[in-house]
């Protein structure tokens, strides 16, 4: 009888623990919108993402994730108004952010057209946008996160806004700007930060992507400075606002690097100063675009992400998918 009571007691404890774990899972990850179809393609049909074994550096302890900011209320549709590659670099203990200008002229596979990169997401969602990245920049990305800009404002408000260096010309482009001053470390709320990241009229696409990286860098710093008791709410709320190919175990694994005390954050942009770029009019549509040698751009991007792992490799990049002859 005593043995039966002990067994019953153990079973009750196990049931309670299982309930607690399930409740914790639902609390943290119940709002996660995982793109399981994309994850299935990445796992079993990598050719549909243009993953190229000849330029693969998968043995490097570096994970690359595409981040798309979508100008639509639906993260499955719309153009990618902001595109970055988030590199979680365990090899060098770094987080790296690489921007690709939205107006970069690229070859869009499946559609078999040469157009602005921003159109790839509208044509085929995350799958075609990632395939376009891999095709043109010789990356081998198999994961992504997408967030529309209205949701991005909510994420920024969750951390209490972001601090940026604000000029008068930028201030004039922002909503509710009467109380804003200009200078360093000016706090913007979510709505203002989204407008800030999308400013186009006062300068160029390089400045625009720089502002976008500035916002992302501030978000990373804010997340690192938060106390452990604040993380549950942040994780739960942020995951509910994103669509991603990652599952919860992968997200937890990647987040561990934020706890490293000597973690560095580095930034890079294309075209930036790495390659010669020209603005021109596409012959096919008459639209303005950025044109640069995408083989040179690939070389600069891979050097930034992988450092000596790439430069010491024997990888031979294929010819550029786009060159200056594509514009008038």
Automatic annotation (TrEMBL):
It comes from the Bacteria. InterPro entries: LytR/CpsA/Psr_CW_biosynth, LytR_CpsA_psr. The chain crosses the membrane at residues 6-28. Belongs to the LytR/CpsA/Psr (LCP) family. Residues 79-224 form the Cell envelope-related transcriptional attenuator domain. This is Cell envelope-related transcriptional attenuator domain-containing protein. Keywords: Membrane, Transmembrane, Transmembrane helix. The keyword Transport does not apply.
